[in-house]
Amino acid sequence: MSEVVLNAEIRKETGKKAKxxxxxxxxxxxxxxxxxxxxxxTATPLALKPLIYTSDTHLISLKxxxxxxxxxxxxxxxxxxxxxxxxxxxxxxxKENEELTVQVPVILKGTPQGVKDGGxxxxxxxxxxxxxxxxxxxxxxxxxxxxxxxNESIHVRDxxxxxxxxLDNEAAAVVAVVPPTVIKEEAPSAAPEAAAAAxxxxxxxxxxxxxxxxxxxxxxxxxxx
Length: 225
Prior knowledge:
single chain, 225 residues, mainly beta, CATH 2.40.240.10, RNA Polymerase Alpha Subunit, Chain A, domain 2, 2 domains, 4-stranded mixed sheet
């Protein structure tokens, strides 16, 4: 894999004081390794750009202003929720003879046959977690999906990498082609229209004997005098 050089300065400011660095156009970060103490550093947005805005994984040659050089990988980047600008980054030191765990991005190549036949491509796993020595870290994993037909998929177990152990569930689907979703429209029911056309009938509370002629519905007719 390719190696990217990152020039950085050792900083003393921490916590709230680190905000001043951002105002001065610098991004605070930290370098750490299991057998070393943490080193607080700063770098410019321009220097970090090749590491942050890329789909590849890189080894980093960190060159400090005290003359030291560290080999590391980018572990985390924090972004401002409003401006979406990077505000902090973490670098993990690596040793050439020690295995490390990283996430490698997946890149798809080609147009699936199933998509040409009307299907939909589902990209499910965008990064695969692997373990290997630093020199074997792949920049990315390229999958040729041209031959995928309808209802076919590529699983983690189908990925073959030399000198690399894949740690994700081997049964998990990375990419799949599925049939298009068909939404059935229900036919309008005739019952509501029929109910609307029929005249409304009053609710019958009780039924009784029809009053005789000359009688009022409320009771007997008054006697003649």
